[in-house]
Write the C-alpha cells for this entry.
Amino acid sequence: MAEGTVGLLGVSNHAAWRVERARALATGAGLPGYEVLQYEHSYLRPRTDIPGDLFPDGSLGAAGPDLLGYLRAEPGLTLVAYSPLLKGAYTNPDRPLLTGYDHPGTPPRLQALREIAREAGATANQVVLAWQLGGELPIVPLVGTSSVAQLEENLAAVDLELTPEQRARLDAAH
Ligand SMILES: NC(=O)c1ccc[n+]([C@@H]2O[C@H](COP(=O)([O-])OP(=O)(O)OC[C@H]3O[C@@H](n4cnc5c(N)ncnc54)[C@H](OP(=O)(O)O)[C@@H]3O)[C@@H](O)[C@H]2O)c1
C-alpha cells in the first residue's frame, strides 16, 4: 500500500476475532488494516456447525452473526459477498441447495423470497442481489455468471428497489 500497488486490503474466510486482532495490530503499528471482508453470503443462511478440513469447529467461510455484527459495529468495513446466488440454486432445478441449507430456517425464507419476487415482477436472483445491495450493511455481491442472459438478469438487480416493507418481510423470515 505504501508504494501504491495495493489500494485496499482484504481478507477472506477468517474468524471475525482473527480479523479484529489483525486490524488492531495494524492500527497499533500505524499501518493500514483490512477494510474489505470476503465471505460467503446470500439471502439463505447456512448451518455453520458442520466441521470441515479447514475448520474443525465448523465453517468460518459464511458470514454469520459474529461477522455481520462486526460489520454493523465498524462502518469502515465492506462485505464482499461471494456465492450470493448459491450457484444458481434459487432458480435452477439442476443446482440443488447444498446440505448446509437443509434446516428449518430455509423454507420460510424461500417463501418470503418467492412472494416478494412475484410482487416486484423480478426473479428470485434479482431480489437476493437487490436485498444485499440496498440494505443497512455495506455489501457488494460477487456474482458469477456463465451466460450473457444471466449477466443481464443479475445486473438489472441494481435498478430493483425493494420497499422498506418488503425488506422488513425478507429480514423477518427465519
Ligand atoms: N473467497 C472464497 O473463498 C470464494 C469462494 C467461492 C467463490 N469465490 C468467488 O466468488 C465469485 C462468485 O462465486 P460463485 O460462482 O460461487 O457465485 P454465484 O453467483 O453463487 O454462482 C454463480 C453461478 O450461478 C449461476 N447463475 C448466475 N446467475 C444466474 C442466474 N441469473 N440464473 C440462474 N443461474 C445463475 C451460474 O451457474 P451455471 O453455470 O450452472 O448456470 C453461475 O456460474 C467467484 O469470482 C469466486 O472466485 C470466492
Q: What stands out?
A: The helical segments are 16-28, 65-73, 106-120, 124-133, 148-155, 164-172. The chain has one domain: 10-172.
